Amino acid sequence: MTSISVAGSAIGPAPYIYVTTRMRVRKSKLLPREEYLRMLNMSLPEITRIIEESQYKAEIDELSQSFSGIDLVEVALSWNLAKEYQKILAITPGRLRMFLQTYLRSWDIQNVLTILRGKSQGMRVGKIKEILIPAGSLDRITLDRLLAEESPERVLEALKGRRLYPVIEKEFPAAQESGSYAHMENELYKAYYADLIETAQAGVKGGRAFLEYIRLEIDIRNLQAAFRLRQGPIPEDAWEMFIEGGEVKPGELVRLAAAEAPDELIETLQQRIGAETLGGLIDQIRGDAPIHEIENALTHLRLDKMTRISKRHVHSIVTILDYLERKRFEVINLRALARGKESNLPTERIQSYLVI
Fold it and tell me: Which of 251-280 are b and which e, b meaning 16 or more Cβ less than 10 Å from the residue's Cβ?
């Protein structure tokens, strides 16, 4: 069999077959839609018991001395997700590992912004830590060091030399003045996706499948932003909200967001994404569904197309991402169920927030 050279070592196809096969097995064990529907009719103690008796048991047991109730459930779910991401990274070989490491840097953005926002708002260190998911290049020890800094300015200083630092340094003064990190967040994701595209186009075998998925993710992220823009007046600098690299260009997205009737937006989606994959999204757009339902429908679309890409590129990075993204939404769904039940929300409302 032909081998490839990655980071100075020759790796044949067997490790890629092994890890992608394991991802499909893991994916098959995720909670099915029917289980979520059953849990919607349960009480919070019943849902908590199911979580405690599932694959999240180790984290529940480990954290039960420090947390209780809904906080225990949420932190245990987050810890399990971070551990799973790190386990998968540890067994992923060669070029797939390179792609995965690049992709997981999105967690660095999320964690650093969470720390900066928490410090700016005067949140307790323990409360900020509960929200962090150390699944990127910034591990738990590094995040703890950032948490120990006294102020956002000190966090910025501690990030010197990190990949995120140049963008954060540039955007920090304006963020502090405005009290909002939204523009910084957008600029960080622009740099992140530019890096992903560069990695996918570097000529390494497997990059084509990776690039196909990254362009899809950019499109879905941009479309979600476009639908949010439709909720109010369109700002003059709206095009800056969108990320380059997708099929639909930022200028076109601004124009579609400003269109009064949804028909032009629907027609563009059908042309760019394909009418056959839009499913019930068109009905939701025409029916003026709440924004969170449209965003969920777009997420469904992304996950479904990701699965189709992984079936065409069976032993590619997309097969790994397909599992990891669905695992992430399992955690998101369980947290939404638990929080919804704790807040005594109607079953129909909780279900509308689930991606199932």
Answer: ebbbbbbeeeebeebbebbeeebeeeebee
- Does a structural domain hold residue 115? no
The C-alpha atoms of residue 317 and residue 20 are separated, in whole angstroms, by 8
**pLDDT by residue, tens only, the chain of 356 residues:** 333 333 334 445 788 899 999 999 999 999 999 999 999 999 989 998 999 889 999 999 999 888 888 889 999 999 999 999 999 999 999 889 999 999 999 999 999 999 999 999 999 998 899 889 999 999 999 999 999 999 999 999 999 999 999 999 999 999 999 999 999 999 999 999 999 999 999 888 889 999 999 999 999 899 888 888 887 788 878 888 899 999 888 888 888 888 766 677 777 777 766 656 566 677 777 667 788 888 888 898 899 989 999 999 999 999 999 999 999 999 999 999 999 999 999 999 999 899 98
Q: Is residue 351 part of a domain?
A: no
Instruction: Name the DSSP class of 105.
Output: T
Q: Domain of 235? A: 207-312
CATH number, position 293:
1.20.1690
Number of compact structural domains in the chain? 1
Are the beta carbons of 83 and 56 closer than 8 angstroms?
no
Asked, for residue 44, whether it belongs to a domain, the answer is no
Its pTM stands at 0.89
Amino acid, single-letter form, for residue 222:
N
In a domain, 252, yes or no: yes
The C-alpha angle 330, 335, 337, rounded to 5 degrees, equals: 95
Q: Does residue 259 sit in helix, strand or coil?
A: coil
